[in-house]
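Could someone model guanosine-5'-monophosphate with this protein?
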Amino acid sequence: MDFNYDPQNIFAKILRGEIPNKTVYENDHALAFEDIAPQAPVHILIIPKGPYMSLDHFAMAASAEEQVGFMQAVAEVCKIAGVEDGFRAIANTREAGVQDVPHFHLHILGGRVLGRMLPKA
Ligand code: 5GP
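Reply:
Sure, complex below.
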């Protein structure tokens, strides 16, 4: 698998401060912010600060420190968002996963019962 990261993607611009965002949490390795078009009462995106296109790219190429930092951000976001009753984490990936922005992001969705994972095909 060839990972060609595009530094002009919209989340890279957010990381560089070229586009504003509503930050929920930030650490050395990850940024979490409100999704611009929320699909649920809680809809937060968590992204690594490094140039990774997708979950599998991040899992293969990011350092242990980056991966731990990212997961710590997930823990903090879940606390901040108050999703004790449950939530869904989604990482849409490439064409079949219908990924629009080619910078790895984890959607954290909650605040209501979300229904079944996928509609029946
Ligand atoms: P994907 O389909 O790639 O998994 O999801 C991309 C997500 O990014 C979508 O939920 C979309 O609403 C969100 N998004 C796209 N552009 C922006 C933006 O400029 N700011 C924020 N906060 N979210 C964005």
